[in-house]
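tool_log.txt
---
The assistant was asked to compare two proteins side by side. It first ran the structure predictor on the initial sequence, then on the second. Raw inputs and outputs are pasted verbatim so the downstream comparison step can read them without reformatting.
(1)
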Amino acid sequence: MATAVEPLYDKRYQCLFCGREFTNKKLRLSQIRQVKRDSDLCTYFEGENPYFYEVAVCPHCGYAFTTNFGPVKKERRELILKEYIQKISHKDYTGRRNLHEALNVHKLGLLCGNLNQEKRSVLAGLCLHIAWFYRYEGNEEEEKKYLRYACDLYQEAYQKESPGGGNANLIIYLIGELEGRLGNYLTATQWLARLLQVRNLEPYLRDLLRDRWEVYRNHLKETTPSAEPPEGRKL
């Protein structure tokens, strides 16, 4: 009889702040069981959730980071030490995590990312995941707060980071979708309209765009009948 495969494994990291090595759990790709996905790409899983393990927290100094973080900036080290390392209560997050722990480590990652002035797109991704975790909990107020943070950061990223290709298309879509989820239907359609003119749009985005474009146009007509949604070519 074949031995069951353990879904989690230990991945080795080197802390970006203190330089010491440690392990953090990761979910094997073969063990990811997707159940459904929301229109803002929030995915629901059967069994372990891979999102829970995307932030690594050093058990030695407490610095929290993702694989998208850059090196700790020399001019930010003292601030990180004083405002984070010396203030946090150390906890070992290197094992299996539940939803509450995943929320905690993502907030630690967001704090470290802000202190180290990480890219806006990276911070936006953390905020979006935090919003999804609150959605899992059914906490709509906190979910919307972090959706707003994520949307604002994605807009800053689009303006300042000059993302190219598919990444730019994804950011545009997410801005439109998050504005729509927050009830800003005109702004949502204005952002989504930009993708209507994109040739060879990624198939998964084209399918999402087709649905959300119609949803938010209809919402806009119902809430503000005099408003004219932006036009674009049909998908």
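(2)
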Amino acid sequence: MFENDDIAVLDAGGADVCEHGSLAAYLMHSKANKSGFAIIELANCRYPGLILRSLSMVAQLGVYISAYRKDQVGSHGASFESGATFPPYWRLDNADDRKEISTVTIICTNQPALLADAVTRQVEQPELQRFEISAAQLAANYNQALEQGIEVDPGQWDALNAAAWPILVRSDTQSRSGAGPM
């Protein structure tokens, strides 16, 4: 929808973030590598919280990232340290009754002071209840889910299947050789 050297706005057109999250994350990384700072907005996307995986992959490339969005529950945010796999996560309970389509704003920089200033301005609302999960707790939750599994609501499972179906490839030796992180 819009792009210059440091900013881009992508319209997901109501699609799941799984379809456009990686594109947004790597575009942001490319822009931040050129100028030291970038902002990407991924507008009109479903399940915006799922972008954290793509952001984790980019943060592990050595940049600082912060992402935030607003939905029916409240304002959500996460900030990755350079090289981090898991971010601290926060939520402010200030519900927005709009539909479940959301805009995710992502800030990326190689200068942590720039990111800290941008994040501070987003969360300065002391009158609202704040909920936080540390990066260590997210890592523990992840490991527990790997060991014990997770329960997914049937409606959400159907939505995840529908989103994944167009991007699945045949499981053969050639496709498995290029799958997953190195």
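---
observation on (2): DSSP finds six helices and eight strands in the chain. Strands lie at 2-3, 7-11, 37-45, 64-70, 75-80, 89-92, 102-109, 130-133.
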